[in-house]
Design goal:
five-stranded parallel β-sheet, alpha/beta, four-stranded antiparallel β-sheet, globular, single chain, 8 helices
Amino acid sequence: MKRKVLIVDDEKNIVDILKFNLKKEGFDTIEAYDGRQALEMVEKEKPDLILLDIMLPEYDGFTVCKRIRQTMNTPILMLTAREEEVDKVLGLELGADDYITKPFSPRELMARVKANLRRVVEEDQKVESELIICGDLTIDVNRYEIKRADEVIELTLREFELVKFLASQEGQIFTRENLLEKVWGYEYYGDVRTVDVTVRRLREKLERVPSKPEYILTKRGVGYYFNPSL
C-alpha cells in the first residue's frame, strides 16, 4: 500500500517540487497551503507523514505541530528557510521528529522521509510482545508504550525509538552521530543538535529530577548511554 505524505507549504513552487520527488519515489501526496487547512487535512486524510513548513498563514508550523501532537504520533518533518538554532530546537521540543533546512537536495529529503516512515512500518509489522525492563521502567515494544511503575508516559515516535534503543543496549555509550544513524536511520548531515534536544525532552518526561538523570546518562565529550545500574 502506498504511503501518504501531507505537504504543508504556502509556496506553490515548493509544493510542486516536493510532489514531483515524492511521486517519483512511489508516494501518494496531499497538499495544504496554510495552517488551518493543514489541521483539517490531518484529521480528514490521516497521512502517514507530514512535511510541515514553519512560516504559514493562519497558524504557523509550530502551532500546527503542537496541535497534531495532542492527538497523533504521525511523523512530522519540519521545513524551514530559517537558519536560527532556536527555530529548529523549538520545532523538536514541540514534537517534530526531524527538520530540514531549505534549500535541500532531493536526495537528502527522500532519505529523511524514508527513514522516518521506515520506523512506522517496522512498528506496524511487529506481531509479538517484547518487553524491556530497566529498573521501574517497562518498555513494551509491541504496544509502543512505556511505563514508570504503573504510569504510562506519553512519548513521540522518535522519543520512544531513542529510549528503546538505548535501553536495549544499556551501558553502551553512543556518540550523537551514532544515534542519528541508528535511531533516525539516515546518514549524518552535520547537525547533532537533534539528538541533544530529543534527549532533553526524554529526561523531562522520564526523570524524576531532569537535571539529575537516572536513566539516560551523559559521558562528557563522548555521548549518551542508558544507566546499567538500575
